[in-house]
Design brief:
- The chain is built from twelve helices and twelve strands.
- The strands form two sheets. It has a six-stranded parallel beta sheet, with helices on both faces.
């Protein structure tokens, strides 16, 4: 004979209201209480056919895309790949994934966070790509778990899923040096991001390990878009600035824009200037010559972030973790 909700409340010394909230996955009880109630209900044979609990979970996972300058997140294929990865995981756990975008220059963060508190949100995957530390802190005060994706903040105790930027940049730079045997240059984004700072560290590490001087590296600051980088590189060439024999670029968009500019001014790639990018975007396979690049499995990153968030929702814990997803070098014809 199955147990009733009233009997379950008496056994657990809880109110019938608390039992109802827990069994129907509604807000109002803690995650620990909810789990205790569900486990007891299963143990004592509660008839779950009265509920939709076994089929559909209340609440949604929110993927929050935070845009500050929008120079990076505006390139949608990378963002879309991570979202698709999340969706493939949360749907299996019977949650909905809702993607929302916050524009720093247009939206009010306090109102935005207030709205989030009144939604069906049960957890957030926060794209930290364009965020600063002070903008992340308010999200961590929300009453549900948060996983930060694509950025790491040393001073914030949170769960992270990030690309191994240092490793990827090291691989790219070491490969350039091994092929060219000359001092590499750096094509740096004019918009600073934590990911780019870590790539610069990996670049310098490889330069040092190959017995070369950091101070001799030529660095150009370029807009992190194809058209912007091309325009900036054309200006550099036309000014007569010194060029390096080979370059590592903060991302593929910069690398592709640079290749276009070099070819417009009569330079041969890779014969005169070799280039390695980062992100392995589809445009890199199309450009002539095709772009050697660092590949990060963005779809997989989204999956890992979703699994980490679901783990926190289902089994809350005190400790936090940082998960780094490794990079690999994709060799093509720009080196």
């Amino acid at each position: 004979m199955s147990i009733t909700a009233k009997e379950l409340a008496e056994k657990l010394n809880l109110s019938q209201t608390a039992i109802s909230m827990a069994l129907n996955n509604k807000p109002g009880v803690s995650t620990e209480t909810r789990r205790m109630v569900v486990e007891a209900a299963e143990k004592y044979g509660y008839d779950f056919t009265r509920l939709s609990l076994k089929k559909n979970k209340a609440g949604s996972i929110y993927a929050v895309s935070y845009r500050s300058h929008n120079a990076i997140m505006s390139y949608s294929p990378i963002f879309d790949a991570m979202v698709e990865g999340m969706e493939s995981v949360v749907q299996k756990d019977n949650y909905k994934l809702k993607v929302i975008t916050f524009y720093e220059k247009r939206d009010n963060l306090e109102h935005y966070l207030g709205d989030l508190r009144t939604t069906d949100c049960v957890g957030i995957i926060l794209f930290g790509t364009e965020m600063r530390e002070e903008m992340v802190r308010p999200f961590l005060k929300l009453p549900f778990p948060v996983v930060i994706l694509d950025a790491y903040f040393e001073n914030l105790d949170c769960n992270y899923v990030v690309p191994n930027n240092r490793q990827g940049a090291y691989l790219a730079t070491d490969y350039l040096i091994s092929r060219r045997m000359k001092q590499p240059g750096y094509l740096q984004s004019a918009y600073p991001l934590r990911n780019f700072s870590e790539r610069l560290e990996g670049f310098y590490h490889a330069v040092h390990d190959n017995g070369m001087s950091r101070s001799r590296c030529i660095i150009h600051q370029l807009s992190p878009t194809i058209d912007g980088a091309m325009a900036d590189m054309l200006a550099i060439i036309d000014r007569g600035d010194a060029l390096a024999d080979c370059y590592f670029a903060d991302n593929d968009l910069i690398a592709i824009g640079t290749i276009k500019a070099l070819r417009l001014r009569g330079y041969k790639v890779p014969e005169q200037v070799a280039i390695v990018g980062f992100d392995n975007i589809s445009e890199g396979r199309i450009i002539d010559p095709s772009l050697t690049s660092i590949s990060i499995p963005r779809h997989y990153m989204g999956q890992v972030a979703a699994r980490e968030l679901l783990s926190q929702i289902n089994e809350p814990r005190q400790h936090t973790c940082k998960i780094e997803v490794s990079a690999n070098l994709v060799k093509r014809f720009s080196v």
